[in-house]
Queue: 2 jobs
Job 1
Amino acid sequence: MKGYVTDDIIYALATAWAQSALAVVRVSGQGCRNLLSTRFSRPKALIEAANATLVHGYLRDGNGSAIDEVVAAVYTDGHGYTKEESVEFSCHGSLAVIKEILALFNHLGMRSAEGGEFTFRAFLHGRLDLTQAEAVGELVSSQSQISRSLALGRLEGSLRGRIAAMKEQLLGIVAAVEVQLDYAEDELDEFVFPRSGLVDLIKQVKDLSATYQIGRLYRMGARIVLAGSTNAGKSSLFNLLLKQERSIVSPVRGTTRDYIEADLDVQGIPIRLYDTAGLRESDDAIESEGIRRTERLIGQADLVVYLVDSTELGHVPKEDERTLVVYNKSDLVKPPKGRMAISAQTGEGVPNLLAEIAKRLAKGSVSSGDEQVVIESERQHTLLENAAQALQRCLVLVDQDIPLDITAVELGEALQNLGELTGEVTPADILQKIFSGFCVGK
Ligand SMILES: Nc1nc2c(ncn2[C@@H]2O[C@H](COP(=O)(O)OP(=O)(O)OP(=O)(O)O)[C@@H](O)[C@H]2O)c(=O)[nH]1
Ligand SMILES: [Mg+2]
């Protein structure tokens, strides 16, 4: 990367800036062990340690006083996270200790790393491609089991491998076209464009791109609003799902006035659930404001679970993609045939309801987290879409018998997009954005 040097030594606190039992401070860069050994109680042991070994000792300040007892995990050049000589110090997690260690490293002439800089170096040294570097961020910020598992798969190279295979297939097509373009037509047998290979490739790219929806769902989660008329049992269901008495339940209509929200997990999908004020005509100013808020939430929801009180069927909205009508109080009255029914009191029908919610949100393709390559990055989605479109245009041109040099342009465009995905040809400004806050080429 133009303008970026990796020969300075960087350091950073790898754990949270908070008091805890232990904290980890990382140092990376050629010669870091020599420099660190000047303030380490066992200099020789640190300098001569083999790769991936632990060295116990004390870090000392300029006067020779111990700052803390530490364990240094040593990685020699070509190994470790950054593939540079590096040391990870596990120290005690007191803020005073952390502060002193960071001050010591600064004093020794090392540079405090920018956010994402360790990962950026791992990328520069070829330890990770761009999809894996992104997976590091996605893994660290994952909120659900499935999101974590999918990100880990990408970090281990599942997406990298998938894209490499697609690129190889594309390069095969490009090579065939180039041979044809390089030689006069009469020197070669009649050229047949590898059409079926192209069709297959388009499907692969599109299929991978389509996983974005599910990846996003498991990452970002969804908003579900419990709505319905007063006394329908919204707060009862809310409490049942959260397994705690969060919302007030009573036979008095209009009990819930303002909405309450809480987080839960529905079959691996992170859900923000809202209990809302029951919908009815009201002269009460406060209740009316609550109802307005309910309506606003309904507008913003990914899914509205509309509860109907089976004992007094009032307004029943139309089912649509975003509205799931559920008949409550099935323990008292049998609901209409074929309709989703539950009892928020006994819990009857609730597992069915949760399965239906997950199915609706995932639009049929519920993930178990370990079966497939799924993307969740908008950048990757855009590049895959661009690649698919370029390949599709190429197919149209081939079918119209347009000269090969024009179809080759579209193939080149697709190749460019796949290259950007893995970071082979990614512009510096995009890299800078990905390794957030970190200045490339400054
Ligand atoms: N038998 C039976 N009673 C229920 C069921 N669900 C709720 N109830 C009762 O119905 C009454 C109203 O329940 P809530 O959960 O407060 O209803 P709500 O929809 O939150 O009502 P508002 O907050 O007033 O809009 C309470 O007395 C509940 O105990 C159910 O499935 N079966
Ligand atoms: Mg309520």
Job 2
Amino acid sequence: MSSLNHCIKFDLDVKDENIVFKDYFYKSIKLQKHKIYKAELIQPACPFCGSLDLLHNGHLITNIHYPTANASLPVIIRLAKQRVKCRDCDRRSMAQSELVNKYCSISNASKLKVLSALTEDRSMTSIARENNVSINTVQRVLGNCSHRFIDSYEYLPAHLAFDEFKGVDRQLHFICLDGDNHQVVQILRTRYKKTLLKYFGRFSPQARANVKTVTMDLNFYYQDIVRACFPNAQIVIDRFHMIQMLTRSFNSLRVQVMKTFDKRSRQYQLLKSPWKLYLKKFDELEKVHPRYNWHYKDCLTQAQVVTEGINTSTTLENSYNLMQSFIQAVETGDAHELKSLINCQDQIGTLMHKTLLTFKHNLKAVLNGAELPYSNGCLEGFNRKIKQIERTAFGYSNFTNLLTRIRLEENLYKEKEPNSLLMVD
Ligand SMILES: [Zn+2]
């Protein structure tokens, strides 16, 4: 073999023994300068009978897109595939190579490069441009690996987390994560009860019996699903969600009380501008150094502001104390304290009362939320990541593509090793 052949093979990282490079040159194709390598793909033996007695019958010339270091100078391998007819079995065949699949003109190396780029947070357009392929090719590579994520129905993790996120067409999709290792168990197109029941119903009874806890927000039919599908599972209400509900109802009560005062009054201003202080934990408020605030025209510490603010109404004071103790109890996992707080008879305003009533109806699940270490915190982080994926792509119109992309990016995130994704057809 010539040294030119070796040199080009080394340069392009082509290992196939049957490919022989013969020439290279520049050529302008559609006004763009291309780097062209000419090569021949040899058919050494008949693929059907292994005979070496072949009759050569010309070549099929294909232009193969190959990865390049410089995206403005695309590389094309002009490969002449030998066509042969076997003298022994009389059958015709054409040489094939690992370099490119049959009927394809995009090299497998290019596809792999596209696939590994798809595991990063990049838009398909930029991937296509860098690899000198069309956006359709990138989409096809993405579509080709969607079958990788077909799950078995034999196993479910012990701790699940349910949530939803906004995706294609502003629809809400259902997502289920493993509570321990935070990997996606499943993403479903819709979050309707029927779909969920059908999906989880497909799992074997052993798999469903394996589920010990399911973390969720206070969506009422998720609980029905758990009761219907997982005989051994405890329902856990996400503790951040509980606190959020309570904080929201306190906040609307604060606004209600605020509106009973005159806009120029001190009480109104104390309840209005420093609203964020009311949502903080009382222990974390500044108690020593007072600050002047021009809204209420006084020099007060943060603790003084809050104390004076809630003193404007008994209802507000009661609900503030309740909220603070509730957060405290949730954080320390004090189920006993939580129970007495939920059964609290103080005057606390209708909305807060409604929230507590909801908690009361789901008492066991709420107490689980405080006692068990599981929460939907992992899901919130994951939702943030999905939003990023969608933003980078300016939105997805195809749910399967979005799903595959999420899975691809997630896999890399977990393993930092794209090798498991190698070889697409
Ligand atoms: Zn043969």
